[in-house]
Amino acid sequence: MVALEANKTDPSLATYYGRGNPVFGRVVTAMVTPFKPNNPKEVDYTVAEQLAVHLGKNGSDALVIGGTTGESPTLTWSEQYELFKVVKQAVGTSVKVIAGAGSNSTEEAIEATIRADKMGLDGTLQVVPYYNKPPQEGLYQHFKAVAECAPDLPVMLYNIPGRTGINMSAEMTAKLAKIPNIIATKEASGDIDQFVEIRRLTDPEFAMYSGDDAIALPLCSVGATGVVSVASHIVGNEIHKMIELFFDGHVSEALDIHLKHAGLFRDLFYMANPIPTKAALRLLGWNVGPPRLPLTDATDECTEVITNHLKALNLL
C-alpha cells in the first residue's frame, strides 16, 4: 500500500492531516514543455532536462510532466514518453516525477500509466475525462481501472471542470481515495465548499493540493497539503517558503509572501496557460520556445504585464 509519511511527534501544523512528509511534497510544479524557438513542432528535450533540474533546486518537490501546462493536448504520446524518460534521468531521485498520463480514453490512460510505471516514474496525474462527460460511476470505473493497472504507482486525481466539462463530486473523490494507491487529488474546481467537503470525507493521509496558486494559501487553512503550481517556475523558493511558514504556524509571514506575489499569480493567467509562463521564462533567459497552435504566443500587452512583474521582483 502507498501511504503518506508523517512525523507524529511534531506539534506544528505540518502534522495535521498527515502533511508532515507527503509523498509528492508541498510544491508540485506543472512544468512547461520546451519547444525549439524557431520550430515549435520539435520538443527541446535538452532544455526540458535543464529546466527540470533548475526547478528541483528552486522550490519544487515534484514535477508534473506532460500535463495541461506542458501542452499535453498538442503532444504526441511518443513525445510525452520521451519527456518522462529524459526528465527522470536528469533529476534522478532528487525530485519526484509525475507523469501526465490522463486521457478521456480509459485504455489510453492505462497504457500511459503502465509505461510510466515501467520507466520508474514516481506517480501519475489522472485528469477527469474531458469532452465525453462520463457519469460519476463512469469516473469511478475509469480511475479504478487506471489505478489497478499499476497498483504500486501513486496516483494524483485532477478535477478541473472548467477544462473537462464535468465536475467530479466530493463524494466520488472520497470514494476513489479508498483505493490504496490513489493518494492525492489536485482540486481545481475553484469551489472552496467542495474542497472542504473532500477534506471532511477523506482520511487524514489523503493529500489535497490546490490547483491554483492564487488560493493555495487560503486552502491550506482548510486542509490542503500544498499546491500544484505554475508560478513556481518563477518564484518557486518563495512559494515553498510560504507553505512551510504556514504549516510552522507563521501565518502572517506566509500571508506577506502571498500578497507580494498575488499579482503574479493572477497575471500568469492573463492569457491561456501556459502562454504567460512561457513568456516569463523566455524573459528570464530560458529558451522554452512559443506554445504550439492552437495556442498563440503572448501579445505585446501580455508581455509588458509579465515584464513589469519580473522587474518589480528584481528578477530583470
Task: Round the mean pLDDT to the nearest integer and report it.
Answer: 94
Label the overall shape: globular
Oligomer description: single chain
SS element count, helices? 12
In short:
This protein is α/β, with parallel strands linked by helices and 316 residues long. Helix content is 43%, strand content 14%. Helix 2 links the parallel strand 4 and strand 5.
Structure description:
The chain has 316 residues and is α/β, with parallel strands linked by helices. It is built from 12 helices and 10 strands. The strands form 2 sheets. The chain has an 8-stranded parallel β-barrel, surrounded by 5 helices. The chain has a two-stranded antiparallel ribbon with strand order 2-3. α7 links the parallel β8 (182-187) and β9 (207-210). α3 runs parallel beside α4 (136-149) and α11 crosses α12. The longest helix is centred in the C-terminal third of the chain and has 17 residues, at 251-267. The model is unreliable at 1-18 (pLDDT under 50).
